[in-house]
Amino acid sequence: MKKIGLFYSFNTKKTAQTAKRIVESFGSENIDEINVEELTEKQFLGYDNIILGVPTWFDGELPNYWDEFVPALDDLDLRGKKVAIYGAGNQKDYPENFVDAVGIMSQLVEKQGAKVIGHTSVKGYTFESSKAKQGDVFVGLALDFENQSSMNKERIASWCEQLIKEFQ
Question: What is the DSSP string of 79-115?
């Protein structure tokens, strides 16, 4: 398997905690962690296998630290890249836009030619709507630290096993 670029904000708590579990699953020799707050286009294009940590903020928005890089995506050719996306949301307090940022980011990278992998089932979640939902799956890994934190470890481990196969 080619080396994976794991992009997330190092200044986050839950997204960074998830990143550490992902690194443990893949092994640190197989993955490079890159702080999205310092991300360059050259770094992003340096990987064919990419994992993005994108929590949902406020009423279904991307975190502001992604705002700096998102405009650059419009000029990048991501054909041949496989991108997996994970993010946290709160399905109880924000049921109308649960993990929307995962869906927003998925649309952005797909528009540039990337193949989004790592889809997961919506079963076990209770929410009204989500931009991350396509049919009966999320386009990435949905985590809820506020209401289902006891399920996160198993969900992350299962997702990583799935990604190991999909990144081949």
Answer: TT-EEEEEEE--TTT-GGGTTHHHHHHHHHHHHTTPE
